[in-house]
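My current task is to audit a protein record that another person submitted. I need someone to confirm that the token line plausibly describes how this chain folds. Take the sequence as given and treat only the tokens as open to question. This is what I was given:
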Amino acid sequence: MSLLSFVICHAPADAALVAQLAEYLTANLSVEVSFDTEPPLVQAVERAISAPFALAVFSPAAIPEVWKRPEWEPVFLKDPEEFGSHLGFFLAADCKFPEILRRERFFDATAGFLEAARLVRQWMLHPYQLPRRIFGHADLRASLSDRPGTLHGLDSASPFLTECALDFGQVCRVDARGRTATSILGETGYQLGAALKETSERNRELLVEYLTIHRALLIYDNLPEEHRDLVAFGGLATVVTTTGPSPVTSVPDFLTLPDRLEVSLVAGWEACEALDKMQRYAEKIEVLHAMLEVATRKSLSDWSIKHELSFMLDENGPGTSLPPTAAAAVRQLGLFSE
């Protein structure tokens, strides 16, 4: 697992505060923090900007007696862009520094460490956006944002999600009502952009691996209690389940699919086509099995369903191996009245 490199340049006298910041960031991000305490600070930063992220800590112990613009300006304002590095400035204690740096990624901890640390994390999660202070939701942020956590049975996650999405690198919201375990995993992976092209069991393993290095908020509305272990991914994931109405809809709509299958297998083929395009093969297999059950029960032709399944499943072990694509040309012909 590759960790993001982050170098903090600081005076030895600030080691305790910097260690607290490093602990906070490593609890929230897939990051490897290293330190440069060799003075002068400007030269330490010059070395540090070879890393993707660097932070200069300002304090009376760290700053030079005299700020010489020809020395600090190119290092602080020009070189990071040239090297493709993100450079931030962390004010640990009141001291004199070039005020123009407040216009950069500047984090003032003199009014409180936690809010400054949160903004540093937000900057690292969204480096091309200006960090924005978030107000409200103190208890939820303490239990769910400041470290990965789990909360079951929240009345509604919408206000928290609206205000605090920047605390996370990614946000996923799934209406779990009426969905199977395979469908819940598939929708989660699709929203996160994590390719899940294998069996349901392997797909969950892939999600666990993905969330080991990606800070994400996962909200499951109306999740049945028996599926709580299913979404206990660990890693950097924060998982919230809610009991209120969900503002999201499923694509395809698995909630109504069973009833629609009882009317026409066309609904199943439409779902299969949508899942095929998204490469959500485990869910497609589940839909095909549901279609086969309906066709068998109603004495309808099932050859096209079985033919499609043969493309999806390994003959030596159902569901153990999936091909990169399925046979798009294979389709059931029509309604039950055929």
Remarks:
- The two ends are 54 Å apart (CA to CA).
- Residues 315-320, 323-338 have pLDDT under 50 and may be disordered.
- The domain at 145-242 is CATH 3.40.50.300 (Rossmann fold).
- The chain is about 40% helix and 15% strand.
